[in-house]
Amino acid sequence: MRAPRGGGGGWKMAAGGGSAGRPCAAWLLIAAAALAAVQVSAVEVHTPEEMFVENGTDAKLPCTFTSVEVISSAASVSWSFQPEGAATRISFFYYSNGKSYPGKDIPFKDRITWAGDLNKKDASIIISNMQFRDNGTYICDVKNPPDIVVKPGEIRVRVVEKDSLPAFPIATVAGIAIGTVTGLTSLISIVVCLVIRKNNSKKRYSGDPDIDARLGM
């Protein structure tokens, strides 16, 4: 008789242990649901792909971004530079909480000016007195916690001889040329259509004296 009771008691303890594990499983399910409900957003950084700058002039490197989070004091901007042909990047500028921190022992010493406004989602900078050695890729990285950065913006800058750039941007000149060609093509098409229509009208009514007289036939 004792043996069955002891065995029954053992089974009861096992059952009790299983019920004790149920709250842990429930908490795990709740935690997983909470993590799934959190929407992870990203900061999107926008820069031009390429810029041409005249030697000895000041260059504004534009950088804007989008973020669903409110811009806070934790937001920051960092700029780095990868010289033409080099494999490493040089960090040369940092901005956070309304203060600029330009690097000291860098090629851009005393040449960097903050030209952005984080409240307007602008992280642009100005580099004065651009030199040929400044050719390379400039990287703009923006952080606005808890948003994460998917990919920093990159600008390939090419420094050219002064007065060698066209008076109008290449894109503007190309747009004007394309617009002119398109307009001339449309005008020629209209003239051709009118001529063909007139000829068809003459052929259709030829033989009628009254109509021929009106058409000048």
Please give a quick description of this structure:
This protein is α+β, with helices and mostly antiparallel strands and 217 residues long.
Features:
217 residues, alpha+beta, six-stranded mixed beta sheet, three-stranded mixed beta sheet
Furnish the topology, listing elements before pairings.
Layout: H1 2-37, E1 42-46, E2 50-54, E3 59-61, E4 64-66, E5 76-83, E6 90-96, E7 99-102, E8 112-114, E9 125-127, E10 136-143, E11 148-149, E12 153-160, H2 170-205, H3 209-215
Parallel strand pairs: 1-11, 2-12
Antiparallel strand pairs: 1-4, 3-9, 5-6, 5-10, 6-7, 8-9, 10-12
Give the end-to-end Cα distance, rounded to a whole number of Å. 131 Å
Q: How would you state the average pLDDT, rounded? A: 75
Multimeric state: single chain
Shape: extended
Number of continuous helical runs: 3
* Low-confidence blocks of residues: 6-17, 31-38
Q: What proportion of the residues is helical, as a percent range? A: 25-40%
Major beta sheet summary: 6 strands, mixed
Which sequence of strands runs across the widest sheet? 2-12-10-5-6-7
Q: How many extended strands? A: 12
Given the helix and strand composition, which structural class is it? Answer: alpha+beta
Q: Which strand-content bin applies to the residues?
A: 25-35%
Radius of gyration from the alpha-carbon trace, in angstroms: 36 Å
Query: What pattern of helices and strands is seen along the backbone?
Result: HEEEEEEEEEEEEHH
Main location: membrane
Subcellular location: Membrane
Family: Belongs to the myelin P0 protein family.
Signal peptide: 1-42
